[in-house]
Amino acid sequence: MSTTAQLDDVYSRLLSDPGVVLLLGEIDTGKTTFAAELVQRATAAGITAGLVDADIGQSVVGPPTTVGLKLCNGMQDFTRVTLRDADALSFVGSISPRGYMLALVTGVAKLTAAAKEAGCALVVIDTTGFVSGIAGQTLKFFKMDLVRPNYVVAFERGGELELVVGIAERFSPAQIIEVSVAPEVVTRSVDERASFREEQFAAYFGEALSRWRVKPTVFMPTPPPDFDLRLLDSLVVGMEDGKGMCSGIGVLEYDEGADILRMISPITEGVRGLRLGSIRIDTVGRFKGPVDLRRLFRSE
User: Fold this and answer.
1) pLDDT tens digits for 211-242?
2) Domain containing residue 126
3) What angle is formed at CA 33 by the lines to CA 30 and CA 39, rounded to 5 degrees?
4) Is 216 helix (H, G, I), strand (E, B) or coil?
5) Are residues 170 and 216 in the same domain?
């Protein structure tokens, strides 16, 4: 059954019997603030907690285009700066779930499992604001189906989550808690959201960067024979460790004189292969446009 509750009551309820908590809500409904406060309260109470950040376009844990896991034991401050460095990553390759739902859902499942394996009694999953339409409903259904949350906390302004909450009630054993979005929650503009994303990318690439040559044979998907490498310039890539996790992200740089690709990244170790993403950026975080790999590779 659904209940409407005050935030302090919700925190107390979740901490009295911790488990996996999945947060639902449109953009700018207070999910991330709630998640940070919940893991902070858990840590202060001696409860081992992990935060899985699946908001790939507005990532707080890890860079955008990834799902990030933050293990919170020993933390004192819970700010966007202190949460930024992830303990584990899963690469999605996009800043929007559309067309990348499989990578997003599997990433959430992997990192939720990793948090449990690390001993977290409380795992809080922050999600994107993509909740409408068949695609939004399907995305949330499969997340719930894979991670089997103990609780679903839905942040609503009106009836916008009625269908998704109904799916949770019918297809999930989770306890469902509905929370009204506080009037003081700020709604950001498209430009403000884009600026925040650039800041997160810039912070990630602001560390000492390395450049080294990469061959197309290490890419997934693999480019077709005689592919024009310059078409991959500025593409975001996930740096896979060969064990199912992402070591970090990088940006490809095409050298026209040598006709080669170089990787630019602060990560230099633990990389076995590179997964091609679907956006172009520069290393100061500026968005340079989307990429459709199927069209680029002229493939189905």
Assistant:
1) 999 999 999 999 998 899 999 999 999 999 99
2) 2-180
3) 135
4) helix
5) no
